[in-house]
Specification:
Length: 80
């Protein structure tokens, strides 16, 4: 769960840094043609999904994963 939050924060940080650079490049080189909102919007959609699916409701703890593996093995042994 903590790993999911850390990875999301890294994703958010790269989003802010890179898109800030893209805004600068767009406004400096071609201020009459604004293309940076498309890049920000597309990446923003991915960032939003990352945010939603990194919440505790969607993450599986290591304990839950171990229980699921044990249950899976037990069911395979029983033939079902």
């Amino acid at each position: 769960m903590e790993e999911a939050r850390t990875v999301f924060i890294a994703h958010l940080t790269s989003y802010v840094i890179i898109n800030s650079f893209l805004v600068f490049v767009n406004l400096y080189l071609s201020p009459d043609s604004l293309w940076f909102p498309w890049a920000m919007g597309g990446w923003g959609i991915g960032l939003a999904f990352h945010f939603v699916f990194s919440r505790p409701r969607f993450t599986v703890s290591s304990w839950e994963e171990k229980v699921a593996k044990i249950e899976y093995r037990a069911r395979r042994r029983r033939g079902g």
